[in-house]
Amino acid sequence: MREKAGDGEGAEALYRRAANTGDTDALLDLAAMRKEAGDGEGAEALYRRAANTGNTSALRSLEEMREEIGDHTGAEAFARQAANAGNISFRSTERWPYGLDPDGTPTLPWSVAEDAT
User: Fold this and answer.
1) Spatial contact of 82 and 50, defined as CB atoms under 8 Å apart
2) Helical H runs in the chain?
3) Crossing angle of helices 56-68 and 72-84, rounded to 10°
4) Residue 70 class from Cβ within 10 Å (0-12 exposed, 13-18 middle, 19+ buried)?
5) Cα separations in angstroms, 26 against 22, 71, 80, 98, 105
6) More exposed terminus of the chain, fewer Cβ within 10 Å: N or C?
7) What's the CA angle centered on 102, arms 100 and 104, to 5 degrees?
């Protein structure tokens, strides 16, 4: 409510209090506020903190941030972590249209895999 009312400082203080009690959604909201304010490093640190608690949405946010700065290798690494944790997004299906093999390599299309044998 404070954020919607334009009280960014008040909202941030409440998000921090909630985050300190283990609320990972508050971490995501706080990270989004940081990103919106132009603090990419602060946002990334908060997203990483949320990801370290198992929040796969944070991994997707980190993937997006890496794509935005042109770090495609870093983005793919976060995408793989999210996919391995069961968080499949539309971006994942674009990145790996046939999925990933158990060893993490992109699965080949059925017709190509058939030709390889």
Assistant:
1) no
2) 8-20, 24-36, 40-52, 56-68, 72-84, 90-95, 110-116
3) 170
4) exposed
5) 9, 26, 24, 34, 34
6) C
7) 55
Rounded to whole angstroms, the Cα distance separating 2 from 51 reads 25
The span from the CA of 16 to the CA of 18, in Å, is 5
Dihedral over alpha carbons 84, 68, 61, 82 (to 10 degrees)? 0
Structure tokens belonging to residue 96 = 């790996």
The C-alpha angle 99, 100, 103, rounded to 5 degrees, equals 170
Largest CA distance in the chain: 62
Task: Yes or no: say if 100 and 107 are a contact pair by the CB < 8 Å rule.
Answer: yes
pLDDT tens, residue by residue, 6-54? 767 777 788 788 778 888 888 999 999 899 889 999 999 999 999 999 8
